[in-house]
Each structure stands twice: as C-alpha cells, then as structure tokens.
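Summary of Year 1 activities. Much of the first year was spent building the evaluation harness for sequence design. The harness presents a backbone, in tokenized form, and records the residue chosen at every position. We chose the following record to illustrate the format because it has been used consistently in internal testing since the harness was completed.
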C-alpha cells in the first residue's frame, strides 16, 4: 500500500498563505473500465485548501497540480474525526448505562458528549492544520 495519497487538481484561487485547488474525488468504481455501463461510478468535485509558504508565488490560477498527503496524515485525520469520537461515545454510553441503568439517558449522553468534542476540534483547528497539512506538486 502506498504511503502517499495524491489527487490531481486545478488551482482555483491563490490567497496570501492559502491555495484553493479543485480536485475530483472518485470512488473505486469510477476508475473501473466498465463503470459507465454499470452506473456504479461516483465522483465529486471538491475544493481543498492547501496552506503554503512563499512557494505559492510561483503558482497561477488554472495551473494543474497534484495535492498530496502522507498516509500518516490521513490516519491522524481519521483518528481525530471518527476513531476518538466513536471510542468516547461508546465509553460514555457504557458508563452512564451502568451508572443510571436507563438506556435513553445513556444514549443521549453518548451522543451529547460529541458536541464538546467537535467544538474542541473546531477551537484547535489552527494547531491541527499544521499536523494535517497537504502539499502541492506542480505537474
């Protein structure tokens, strides 16, 4: 398995420290040769923000680039976005169920603990941006 994740894209906008790149995210079926015949292919256009230093001065709008991220970055993003919230929710669900014996309260508590978790992620988004960084390669 590759340790680098990459998507080809086109630069949409260049700002002071940020480059917005339009990529086409495809499902595994979209790359299949017979995808047009089985109607299972799925693809979406997305705008990705890539935070750059002074290297953005050499880029132009409409230029083809490749957005890359390491496998470690992808793993960290999945852990923070899905893994930890799941463990937190299940842990709170079990503790509250054992403590109160009421399933409704346990379920609401398990879901409710996600609100402060995602608020904390949002508050620390600038710090996390450094650890979840994309890079650009000019085609």
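For this record, the design step produced the sequence shown next.
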């Amino acid at each position: 398995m590759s340790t680098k994740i990459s998507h080809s894209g086109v630069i949409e906008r260049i700002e002071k420290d940020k480059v917005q790149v339009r990529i086409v995210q495809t499902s595994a079926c979209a790359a299949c040769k017979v995808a047009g015949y089985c109607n299972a292919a799925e693809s979406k256009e997305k705008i990705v923000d890539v935070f750059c230093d002074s290297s953005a001065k050499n880029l132009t709008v409409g230029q083809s680039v490749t957005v890359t991220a390491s496998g470690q970055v992808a793993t960290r993003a999945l852990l923070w976005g899905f893994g930890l919230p799941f463990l937190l929710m299940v842990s709170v669900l079990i503790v509250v169920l054992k403590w109160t014996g009421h399933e409704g309260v346990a379920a609401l508590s398990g879901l409710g603990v996600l609100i402060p978790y995602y608020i904390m992620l949002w508050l620390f988004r600038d710090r996390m941006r450094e650890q979840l960084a994309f890079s650009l390669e000019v085609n």
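The longest helix spans residues 71-100. Quantitative recovery figures across the full test set are reported in Table 2.
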